[in-house]
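Structure first, sequence second, as always.
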C-alpha cells in the first residue's frame, strides 16, 4: 500500500507540475497582454484561485464538478475508478497555476524593454517573440521561486487524501486504520516527503549554478 501511495504521489506531482506550468504561463501572458479583456480575465483568474485554499478546489472537482456537467458526463466521471486522481490533478493544477502565473509575470516585467524591441527588429511575430526571446528569459529569471513553488505543489499532493485518492498520506491513514501500525507508516511517509523534497531542492540549486555559468560564458563571449 505504501509503494502504491508513493507511485500515485509521484504521478500527481509530475502531472500537476507540468499542467500548472503550462496553464500558469498562459495566464501570465494574458495578464501582460495589451488586450484589456485578456488582462482582466487573467487577473480575475489569479484573484479567485490564489485566494481560495487549494483543498477547496480538490474537493470542488471531485464532488461538485461532475454535478454541473451536462449530457451525463458527470455520471461517467463518477463511474471512472481513477476519478479521485483526475480530480486531484485538476484541483492542484488550477491552484498552483495561479501562483506560477504571478511568478512568471514578475519575470516578464524584469526583462528590459529593449529585448522585445530587438525581437521585433529581427522580424519575429508576437508568438515567436515569446517562444524564442521572452519565455526563455522569464523561466531563467524565475527559476528559484518556480522551483520552490513546485516543491510546495509536491507537498500539496497530500490534500488529495480528502477525496480518497490513494496517494501516500491516504495510504498511511489506511495502514493505521487496518493494521494499527501508524508509527511505522508515518515514519516511512515522512522520510519519503523529506527525501524527495530535498532531491528537488538540490536539482533546482544545480540548475541555478548551470544557468549562472551559461550567463557568465555568454557575457564573456559578448565582451570578447
Amino acid at each position: 500500500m505504501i509503494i502504491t501511495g508513493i507511485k500515485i504521489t509521484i504521478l500527481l506531482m509530475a502531472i500537476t507540475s507540468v499542467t500548472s506550468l503550462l496553464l500558469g504561463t498562459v495566464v501570465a501572458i494574458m495578464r501582460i497582454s495589451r488586450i484589456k479583456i485578456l488582462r482582466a480575465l487573467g487577473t480575475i483568474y489569479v484573484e479567485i484561485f490564489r485566494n481560495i485554499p487549494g483543498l477547496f478546489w480538490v474537493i470542488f472537482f471531485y464532488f461538485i464538478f461532475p454535478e454541473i456537467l451536462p449530457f451525463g458526463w458527470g455520471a461517467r466521471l463518477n463511474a471512472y475508478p481513477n476519478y479521485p486522481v483526475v480530480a486531484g490533478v485538476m484541483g492542484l493544477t488550477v491552484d498552483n497555476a495561479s501562483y506560477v502565473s504571478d511568478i512568471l509575470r514578475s519575470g516578464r516585467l524584469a526583462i528590459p524593454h529593449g529585448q522585445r524591441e530587438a525581437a521585433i527588429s529581427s522580424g519575429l511575430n508576437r508568438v515567436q517573440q515569446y517562444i524564442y526571446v521572452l519565455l526563455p528569459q522569464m523561466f531563467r529569471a524565475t527559476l528559484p521561486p518556480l522551483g520552490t513553488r513546485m516543491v510546495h505543489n509536491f507537498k500539496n499532493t497530500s490534500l488529495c487524501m480528502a477525496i480518497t485518492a490513494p496517494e501516500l498520506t491516504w495510504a498511511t491513514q489506511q495502514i493505521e486504520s487496518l493494521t494499527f501500525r501508524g508509527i511505522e507508516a508515518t515514519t516511512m511517509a515522512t522520510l519519503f516527503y523529506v527525501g524527495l523534497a530535498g532531491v528537488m531542492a538540490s536539482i533546482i540549486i544545480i540548475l541555478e549554478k548551470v544557468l549562472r555559468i551559461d550567463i557568465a560564458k555568454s557575457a564573456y563571449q559578448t565582451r570578447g
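Margin note: The CA atoms of residues 119 and 128 lie 9 Å apart.
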